[in-house]
Amino acid sequence: MSKLTFTPAVPTLTYERVVQQIEEAILSKEIKPGQHLPSERELMTQFSVSRPTVREALRVLQSQGLIASKPGGRSGPVVLPVSTDHLGRSFANLTRISSLSLDELVQFRIVLESSACQLAAVMHNDEQLAAMRDAVERMEVESSTGSDSFNRADLDFHAAVWEASHNSILRICGEAVAGAILQVMNDQMSHADNETREMKKVVSLDRAIFDAIEAGDPVAAGDAAKTAISSYFHKSLDEQGLLGVQALTEKR
């Protein structure tokens, strides 16, 4: 048996233990949205810590979107409804760190968007389908004029698809990934030999996704999304990235 090697244990900072307990109370709904935490003085007593420690813990909880402080109020911070917005911001920041390659982001987008399209094919309502149709039709019009509104219509289409999936985690992650590679998309469009032709290609790909969703065909919708993403980013990926995309888009 080989000898195990451990690294030195790092003591947890006091304010982190305060954060952990309050966070658990909020997420378990022991403290409900709209209720107030105890005052700083009460928290100091209950946790047996200093005022700076309490304030640092509250600052962290506020940055997480779990509480909101009201200056001058006698009671403690108010507990906010747990929202997906903070998760969205955190994930968006993650996708922008330099260690994540375009290959990884495109591959992840294929997984996310194909799944969202499959769900949208069976979960959409009439309003969401109408929003998709409107966006595709605007894209078709704008592709002939080369208007900047084309990109807006394209974003609106995909936002409607995410919404129609009725899966907030897919929507949050998908929109974050799409935002992270938006600059690549814009650069590719602006440097295209024939921008109008490139726009019409995107319209055709999005139209295929829409038609499959409208027909209620999840398999076709997922395949159309995979084809659209892999086709659009094919020229931007290296050999390793293309191998990954091929593995994800290969029909079984």
Structure, briefly:
The protein is mainly alpha-helical. Helix content is 69%, strand content 2%.
Descriptive labels:
252 residues, mainly alpha, two-stranded antiparallel sheet
Write up this protein:
The protein has 252 residues and is an all-alpha fold. It has helices at residues 14-27, 40-47, 51-63, 85-95, 102-123, 126-145, 149-165, 168-180, 182-190, 195-214, 218-233, 239-249; strands at 67-68, 78-79. The model has no long low-confidence stretch (mean pLDDT 84).
Look at the structure and give the mean pLDDT: 84
Q: Which percent range fits the helix content?
A: 55-70%
Low-confidence stretches: none
Taken from the alpha-carbon principal axes, the silhouette is: elongated
Arrangement of strands in the largest sheet:
1-2
Largest sheet: 2 strands, antiparallel
Count of strand segments: 2
Give the N-to-C terminal Cα separation. 43 Å
Give the helices and strands as they follow along the chain.
HHHEEHHHHHHHHH
Q: Please give the count of helices.
A: 12
| Secondary-structure content class | mainly alpha
Beta-strand percent range: under 5%
As a whole number of angstroms, the C-alpha radius of gyration is 24 Å
Ordered list of secondary-structure elements with their pairings:
Blueprint lengths: L13 H14 L12 H8 L3 H13 L3 E2 L9 E2 L5 H11 L6 H22 L2 H20 L3 H17 L2 H13 L1 H9 L4 H20 L3 H16 L5 H11 L3
Antiparallel strand pairs: 1-2
Helix pairs in contact: 1-3, 2-3, 4-8, 5-7, 5-8, 5-10, 5-11, 5-12, 6-7, 6-10, 7-8, 10-11, 11-12
